[in-house]
Design goal:
The protein has helices spanning about 15-30, 35-55, 60-65, 70-90, 90-100, 110-120, 120-125, 130-140, 145-150, 180-190, 190-200, 210-215, 220-230; strands at about 130, 160, 165-170, 170-175, 175. The protein has about 230 residues and is mainly alpha-helical. It folds into 2 domains: about 15-120, no CATH class; about 125-230, no CATH class. The strands form 2 sheets. Strands 1-3-2 form a 3-stranded antiparallel sheet. A two-stranded antiparallel sheet has the order 4-5. A hairpin with a 5-residue loop joins β2 (about 160) and β3 (about 165-170). α1 crosses α2 and α10 (about 180-190) packs parallel to α13. The two termini are about 40 Å apart.
Length: about 230
C-alpha cells in the first residue's frame, strides 16, 4: 500500500483529487460563476488538491482542521492574492530564504470585497468585446443588421452601463454570429449566463468549450448541452 492510498476505501489521493476537482468545476459552471477558462480549471484543481489531502494527513493535523472555527470564505481572497504573488516571484524556496516566512492571512473587510466585485469588468470574464461602431467599421456589419440579430437573439449582447450593449467578438465567424446562438439563448435565457456558459468547458460536452463546438457546426450537440445545463 502506497502513501497515497486510503486504507478504508483504497482510493489514491490523486484519484480523490480528480473527483473533487471535477465536482467543483461542474458546480462553478452550473452556478454561473464568473471565471475565465484558465482560472476555472486552476481553482477547481486547487480545491480538489486541498480537499483530497485532508484524509491523508496525520491525526493531529486532522483534529486541528476540525477544530478551526474561522470563516474560511473570508480568507479565500487573500489566499489567492498571495498565491498569485507567490507564482510570480519565481523560486518559492529562494524567496522564503530571502524574505522569511509569509505573514498570516488577514481577513478582508466587507468594503474591500464589495469594491473588488464592483471593479470587475465585462472584459475580465467575457473576453474581447466591441460596440456596434467597431463592428461596422472592422467587421462590416451594418448597425441595422446587428440590431436585427439582437432582437432575434441570434447574437449575444451584453449590457455595459445604461442602455449601451457590447458584443463578444469570439461569437463571430466570417462576419456573422455562429449558428446555434439563438437556440442556446432560448434554452438559457440570460445573455450573460449564456455567454459565460458558451466560453467555459462544459461537462455536458466532455470538457469542450461550447462556442468552439458551435464554430464546428455541431449545433445539435451544443443546444442539447445547453438545455441540460439550464435544467440543472
Amino acid at each position: 500500500m502506497t502513501r497515497f492510498q486510503n486504507r478504508t476505501h483504497g482510493i489514491s489521493q490523486d484519484a480523490l483529487a480528480d473527483l473533487v476537482t471535477e465536482a467543483v468545476q461542474q458546480a462553478l459552471i452550473q452556478q454561473g460563476t464568473v471565471l475565465d477558462t484558465q482560472a476555472l480549471v486552476s481553482v477547481s484543481a486547487i480545491a480538489g488538491g486541498l480537499a483530497a489531502a485532508a484524509p491523508f494527513l496525520p491525526q493531529a493535523q486532522r483534529l486541528a482542521i476540525g477544530s478551526f472555527k474561522g470563516e474560511c470564505a473570508a480568507f479565500a481572497p487573500e489566499f489567492f492574492r498571495r498565491l498569485g504573488e507567490f507564482a510570480r516571484s519565481g523560486s518559492a524556496s529562494a524567496n522564503r530564504a530571502d524574505d522569511g516566512p509569509m505573514p498570516p492571512f488577514a481577513a478582508p473587510s466587507s468594503a474591500k470585497r464589495t469594491n473588488d466585485l464592483q471593479s470587475a469588468l465585462i472584459e475580465d470574464w467575457a473576453g474581447e468585446v466591441a460596440g456596434s461602431t467597431f463592428l461596422e467599421e472592422h467587421f462590416r456589419i451594418p448597425r441595422s443588421t446587428l440590431h436585427r440579430w439582437q432582437r432575434r437573439n441570434e447574437v449575444i449582447a451584453l449590457r455595459k452601463g445604461g442602455r449601451k450593449h457590447v458584443f463578444p467578438l469570439a461569437q463571430f465567424v466570417d462576419g456573422r454570429p455562429a449558428s446555434g446562438i439563438s437556440e442556446v439563448m432560448s434554452a438559457i435565457g440570460n445573455p450573460r449566463l449564456a455567454w459565460f456558459w458558451l466560453t467555459r468547458p462544459s461537462p455536458q460536452l466532455r470538457g469542450r468549450i461550447p462556442i468552439e463546438v458551435l464554430k464546428q457546426d455541431m449545433v445539435c450537440d451544443v443546444v442539447s448541452a445547453a438545455r441540460k445545463f439550464s435544467s440543472t
